[in-house]
Design brief:
By secondary structure, the chain is α/β, with parallel strands linked by helices. Helix content is 35%, strand content 26%. Strand 9 (206-211) and strand 10 (214-220) form a beta hairpin.
Length: 237
């Protein structure tokens, strides 16, 4: 097996006196898609914040692309090639679509396929049609497309998507799933947090389920598909 792109070992994290993560081990290989699952409040958001440098950890270590990153600032971690599509989209209301994509563009890796404004427009033609619209003038689905495009133009080595289909109309949701399938086919490394497990098992290589701040289960999509008792036990679906 090749060197892990992301390797988190023994991660512990707390808010004041309340411990949230208890010795989390999490890894991802280059080009792999991993589903991060669990009910609300089980530690998914805290783990993501820890990976991004937005939350300090009390124990353990996080290596990204062979470099120890825990303790680095979020902007330094981002420059190493770790990007996120945050829950809630967080687009800038007073920037146009084109300004969003132009401002965040960067070429940080040697990938054969480099994302730029035009390739994002090819992925999401609707954004090209609305390139002069402000973020506040976009629908929820369009804002989500923009959030994904904004992350892609940084040309990340690893892209984390936190509830990317939450609150979207079914047709738009399908468009996002199609986008994720395409990214996977292109070899983009992905961590996907999403409640639609039946769709996630179609694109993810592996899954990690968190329960009360610990890894309760991990395995392949085939294993998760076969054992639907896991869905009821840990995911409430």
């Amino acid at each position: 097996m090749s060197q892990a792109l992301l390797l988190a070992q023994g991660i512990e994290s707390s808010y004041d006196q309340s411990q949230v993560l208890f010795g989390i081990d999490f890894s991802l290989q280059p080009g792999e898609t991993v589903g991060l699952l669990g009910r609300n409040g089980m530690g998914k958001t805290t783990l993501i914040k820890s990976l991004l440098g937005l939350k300090s950890i009390q124990a353990g270590g996080i290596d990204f692309n062979g470099k120890r990153i825990n303790g680095l600032s979020p902007d330094k971690i981002a420059r190493l090639g770790l990007a996120v599509v945050p829950e809630g989209r967080q687009v800038f209301p007073n920037l146009t679509v084109l300004e969003h994509l132009s401002a965040f563009g960067a070429h940080r890796n040697d990938a054969a396929i480099q994302w730029d404004v035009q390739s994002v427009f090819e992925l999401f033609p609707r954004l090209q049609e609305r390139q002069s619209n402000l973020g506040s003038q976009l629908s929820g689905g369009e804002q989500q497309m923009l959030a994904i495009g904004r992350a892609l133009v940084t040309n990340p080595k690893l892209l984390i998507l936190d509830e990317a289909t939450e609150g979207l109309a079914p047709l738009i949701r399908e468009e996002i799933w199609s986008c994720l399938k395409l990214l996977r086919q292109r070899g983009q490394s992905l961590i996907v947090v999403d409640k639609y497990v039946n769709r996630l098992v179609e694109i993810a290589d592996r899954h990690v389920i968190l329960e009360r701040g610990q890894v309760a289960w991990s395995g392949s999509s085939a294993e998760l598909s076969r054992d639907t008792s896991l869905w009821n036990r840990y995911l409430g679906v």
